[in-house]
């Protein structure tokens, strides 16, 4: 019996990590958009939903393998984000309430547009047979797909860190974040930085949607629930990349453990209560960094 209980706890922890990994990919997109552009993007959940539908369309109508649907989801949703940023968001910078309302309106448009095109019936994203198997390690059973999610998330995080801390573009992003006017005096085009960052953040949400589409049914409203978790990860993490990594792991594990001893609904309730209490005593999050905004 103790072995069975211990195995259940380990499986719950692994499940929490796999869910947290996908939250993290979505939250990274939110983090870099808010950290660089200063926009609270209420349409981020719909970017995630578009990523899931992109995978569904590419599989159903073009026969594209799942592993190729992931990067395809990034580029398709990044292109959508680029159009939205160029057509709307760039005119609303430094107007937080207007951007909040505008992106909320965009989210409604995207949701209803997908409903018109594909209907409200659930859709599904399939994976190769190998991802549907399990690997037995002692008394612990690991899903091959969840192992893939761990590795993929680690790759995305490493790539994001490299992009923003080891490249010329990353240096430009950090310069614009610190002082837009000073960065412009050195020839850095802040407008281009904002455009590129917004597109990258949208693309990351698209990839997260592709992965979530495997674990759940694909619906026009699916982004609403997942974006709440992504926002919580960003807020608890303090709006920083390392904070998002820590917060996603912590919240994912807590929800999985709470769900194991109760149910998923009550687990979310407990998690939200703990987050509210945490933010009461540490409103700037886990790893908040003081910085000058534009």
From TrEMBL:
Keyword Transmembrane: yes
Lipid bilayer topology: Multi-pass membrane protein
Transmembrane feature ranges: 12-40, 60-84, 96-118, 138-165, 198-219, 225-250, 257-279
CDD domains: TM_PBP1_LivH_like
Keywords (A to Z) from UniProt: Amino-acid transport, Cell membrane, Membrane, Transmembrane, Transmembrane helix, Transport
Subcellular location per the Swiss-Prot or TrEMBL entry: Cell membrane
Primary localization class, coarse: membrane
Gene Ontology cellular-component annotations: plasma membrane
InterPro entries registered for this protein in UniProt: ABC_transp_permease (IPR001851), ABC_UrtB_bac (IPR017779), BCAA_transport_permease (IPR052157)
Molecular function per GO: transmembrane transporter activity
Matches recorded under NCBIfam families: urea_trans_UrtB
Family named by the database record: Belongs to the binding-protein-dependent transport system permease family. LivHM subfamily.
Stated name of the protein: Branched-chain amino acid ABC transporter permease
